[in-house]
TrEMBL record:
Residues 1-119 form the HTH marR-type domain. Gene3D superfamilies: Winged helix-like DNA-binding domain superfamily/Winged helix DNA-binding domain. SMART domains: HTH_MARR. This is Transcriptional regulator MarR family. GO terms for biological process: response to stress. It comes from the Bacteria. Pfam families: MarR_2. InterPro entries: HTH_MarR-typ, MarR/SlyA-like, WH-like_DNA-bd_sf, WH_DNA-bd_sf.
Amino acid sequence: MSQMYERHLSEVGITAAQFTLIAAIGRRPGVQMVELAEHMVMDRTTLVRALKPLQRDGIVEATQESAASRAVGLRLTAAGKETLAKASVQWRAAQAEFEAKYGEKRAKALRESLFELTTME
């Protein structure tokens, strides 16, 4: 299943994990690292490592929220917003392929099961 998503997203030059990150940042511009790590169920070190190539490629930028605060907010750059738009098209294409292959009911059940696994403590 993940290979299907990876294949579609490779057209845009990102991975499924990177898509998930930029989609989360796109929904919450200025989100702080700690909040994003909690949302993504990642530790901060793993998140920093995952963000490095996105920052290097000019997709995500980290900005200090204020001079008085050490909090760093994450935002998509213009290139990041464009990447997210293109990747969203590919993501939907992967979902359509997945549903065509497994059927709508089975695909929904699989997605729900995967979601449950990621939210288990």
